[in-house]
Amino acid sequence: MSQMDLFPHQVEAADGIMRCLQTPPGGHIPPEGLRTQVIAATGSGKTLIAVEAARRLSARRVLVLVPTLDLLTQMAGAWRRGGRRGAMVGVCSLRAEDSDGIPCTTDPEELVSWTRDLEPVTVFATYAAVGLGILQRAHEGGLPVWDLMVVDEAHRTSGDAGKPWAAVHDQQRVPAVRRLYMTATARVWEAEGDKPRLVASMDEDSPVFGPVAYKLKLSEAIRRGLVAPYQVVCLDIRDPELFEALQMESAASDAVRGARLAALQTGLLTAAARERLRRILAFHSRVAEAEAMAAGVGAVAERLAEDDPERYPPAERVWADWLYGEHTPGYRRQVLDEFASDFIGGDSDIPAAVRILSSVKVLGEGVDTAQCDAVAFCDARGSMVDIVQMVGRALRMKPGEGKLASLVVPVFLGPDEDGEEMLTSEAYGTLAKVLGALRAHDTDTIEALADPRRRSGRREGAEDEDGAELEGQDEDQDEDDEAWVSERAAGLLRFSEPRDPALLAQFVRLRVIDPENAYWRRGIEAATRWLRESGSDRLRVPYDYVMPEDEGAGAGFPLGVWLADQRRYYNAGTLDPARVAELEALGMVWSHQDVAFEEGLAVARAWAAKHGHFLPPATAVGEGGFPVGVWAKNQRAAARKALLNAERRAAGEDVPPTPGEMPASRLEALEAIDPGWCPLGWDVAWQRCFRLARAHIEAGGTLPEAGGELVVQGEDLGAWASAQRAGWEKLKPAQQWLLSSALGLEPADAEDKPARPSRDDKWRLNITAARQFRAREGHLTVPRKHVEVVDGTEIKLGSFLDNARRRADKLTPERRAQLDELGMRW
Hints:
By secondary structure, the chain is an alpha/beta fold. The chain has 6 domains: 8-222, Rossmann fold (3-Layer(aba) Sandwich), CATH 3.40.50.300; 228-437, P-loop containing nucleotide triphosphate hydrolases (Rossmann fold, 3-Layer(aba) Sandwich), CATH 3.40.50; 516-588, no CATH class; 591-657, no CATH class; 679-754, no CATH class; 759-821, no CATH class. Helices cover 44% and strands 13% of the residues. It has 27 helices and 21 strands. The strands form 5 sheets. Strands 4-3-5-2-6-7-1-10 form an 8-stranded parallel β-sheet, with helices on both faces. β20 (788-790) and β21 form a beta hairpin. α4 packs across α5, α13 crosses α15 (473-490) and α22 (684-698) packs parallel to α24. The longest helix has 34 residues, at 501-534. The protein starts with 7 loop residues before the first helix and ends in a 5-residue tail after the last helix.
């Protein structure tokens, strides 16, 4: 891969990735692989950062996971332009005409065969359930481990937003030596009435996502000219009849929707004229409304131009179209090309004054819309994650372009409604949502909106212990940064009618920032109630404890998980000191050792309930991203010490307590979950396969004679059973008894055991494979990993010939002559 021209921040990010993903001293990669995350502003070139990381890591086999098909084809093109060489394959159902020349498949066996001997190779897939399922089956069928997995828009795989995508993180299902998680928005809050919740959170130093290798805030990206500065343009729409209709049950009727849409069309064209907007993306939640918006813009433009021709352009210079998820990728690209054009359709030489492209559930994550200078939130009923992505569409630009992005938000006001009602009026709900989405991108600026002192430029000076004002370059830089952010915040919100700055600050504080603060207060209320009702003076709350669903304080609140989160933030040094003090006043237990076992025990119960056993692989991740596999492995080591010492004490030995020995109470708690969770005479993998096989038989099934027919929880039970029969004499008596009594397995008869081939037999088979290859291909230049099938038997022909070359001086003259006859290149 050739070196690319990178911006300084991309070089910094690649350096950080290398520090986190380079092979550790000693060359030992942990079982769960190496993991890291990059959090960088939307439009700052994360794709090129990933390509550069792959180049530096010499990653031959790369898997790139994206959330949508649109982004899949765009991403493949970006990797190619970034310098990535070798084959590229898509795991999706795109047809040839829609895939930009990338071969695509939904067949796991085909994916394995296509990529078996290709290096370098880059595979692109969506992390929808279908795409991940194909990858999992391909790995079960022999697809090798990935050198590097890149997960784009990775916040989608976290928290509530990512429950269906757990396989992305699971080393057993989609194995990778290294994982690189990339996002612009690591934490997204959503307010649901009085129950705000964190819908996406990629916590720093998480065992799932790994440490943060590099972070570029949006405010810094704007300062560097990488991302467009932005403003929020609020459309004050006063229509008494429409407002009254929107408040009634008939608000969902076609007539009311039509009237609302007409008001939006007028508002958008008015905003375009006032703010000089040229290309507007309008987001809707209903297909019919997106289509109607595009169809009706022309008539509205014609009426406005007739009323005020000096302000509004003629209708023939106004372009409008729409897109939704069912449009083919080829058609979408065609419409987007028209959207980016300077002229009205086809070969016309009429310059476009305004372009409005309406969309539904499309043009989301990462889709390149750098030509767009405005985004209109015609309907913000989607999830907060979706709105965050809509915001990101407007911010993208070519570095140094100098555009100003506008976020257009309609505000449907009552006939007598004034600015003083901002704090409670439903008319400002969309504005609160959009500012909340902006906060996920640009925390500093939105929080500056809530602080009039910062927006006015007043800032209390930092002082030392003697009260003298501190001086120094770092302090001056901090003040410069804060002054710059405050200046941006002061002009961020633009209304059709003036608003009181103090009232705006209060609105942002109460309706945008306080959803998170409200979540904190609910946690404190629940903790206080738990202490009162439990009679305890310490917050030793089980990890899975949820407050009762009643009328009391904190009803239904997940107190155990919330306290575990606060403990994690505290240990990472990111918990606000005031919150630390408030929790300590309640008797918070900060020591991880004091509560880790109870947290792990709760996750262990959930794991066993879901899987039917508590024998997770070491790489398993439980609820909330808890590393239950590693935890179980550590508990098993402590339990074995306790069990072995107990045997020695029972035999009369004087054995003192051993460091790390598990207390009897903990051992009993784990045995209550699964009595066989800690086998002493054999490994956990054997025990897991046995338990899964027994459950299958107890459910009325039978074990197949060969592998590949029955795979449960990633274990090939047919292959395992065959191996037990063939290797019966190597098993312990207890294992033999379990297999015979519970599964009905018996040792294989001597005549059933395949005879071990001699060296001469192996040579004859390999030569047959070489002759077969030579007759078919006309040469004997065989790739190193090529496998030739002879009478149903797979022969690793490439490896055989490579070994023959290395051992040429030890081959007999007859064998060397056989290879010479076939055209062997020594």
